[in-house]
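Progress report, Aim 2. The chain analyzed during this reporting quarter is listed below.
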Amino acid sequence: MLNPTTGIVFQALSQDAANALPPGKTFAAVVRSQPQGLFTTIGAIQIPLDAGVGLEEGQRILIQVQRQGDGIRLDIRPQSTSAAGQSPSISTILASLLRAEGRTELARQGATILPRQTPANAATIQAFVTTLLSDRGTGQDLLQLQQFITSATSQGVLSPDVGTALSPWLALTALADAAAWQDLVRRARSEREAIARLAQRLGGTQTGTSLADLKESIRTLTKRLMTDEQFQQWLRSNGSADDFKALADRTLERATGRDVQNLRSLDQSYQFLELPITEKQGFKRLQMHLFSESKGESTPQKNPVHRTVLDLELTRLGPLWIDLSAHGQRCTCTIEAAASELVEEITNVATDLETALTALGYTNVRVQASLMNGSRESALIALLAPFKALNLEA
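Predicted structure tokens for the chain:
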């Protein structure tokens, strides 16, 4: 039976924990699971939970901070549910969705890769699963959207400026301009706070507008076309209304999925990007995870660690996992490939790759290749596992 309130007492706290857990504050959190047992998090602080408390993975809880002597007490209780009964937990929803996709083996560990603030909403979690775990990239959908807009524009149904938001993305799809890739990463980093702020509005029927205020939003463009009666009438007249609706649904779902993944930026310096490239350019999928690890704005680290992980699949070379870390003048690049022959080829050109990175200004460079250890999904689970706990004791 579920205990109404569970108390955890800390007699002494580190300064970081004391700043993050002021007495009188109440936090909303989610119960998580790892091999060592249940836990929850408040920001970067990981709090272990006794298995006997009656809580379950994915359950939403409230944590109230109380002063107790020289330390604090955390009173943890489940969030109240409606009279109609308790809503399914996040883990229950995720497990059901993964079973439907034939990925039952991921059902338990998969819950650990969901950002802490993920709404317990089936449509939202489905969007997350589709975006992060799908083997299909977004480039073909983008080109199909361009074809619809170009055709409608040529016939006077849409004004020429409608496709403006597509221009920077189409440059990426064509791989025509390396500067466009650099600009995308730069804008992604600068917009991280805006994305995180907007992503907080996710949940229920609000998910469709969470990026409405961002410039060049494919989501905004798609929603505009879905409500443009002249465009919709044109689609019906040429028999392509169903095709466009399916395209729009996929586009909006992937946009919501990216929002959910970027909820992680509320807890750490992180940005997720899904690049719209196509098989014509030799890519089946290219997703980027960008991290920055420092001590925080109040005590900035002189040389923070910048980490970029590329999760990609090439039409000829298969899946690759590239992990690039830079710290001051030191740069490390590890490349995992699914084929041993490819590992050997990469190893043979490692010196050339190190020379190219040195030309960028790094003085201590190392490039190494290895055989992919496990599946892409297991690599994602390891990459997106919760933070290592801060030291709560003084």
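The CA atoms of residues 154 and 160 lie 9 Å apart. Confidence is low (pLDDT under 50) at residues 189-216, 295-299, 388-394. These observations will guide the mutagenesis work planned for the next reporting period.
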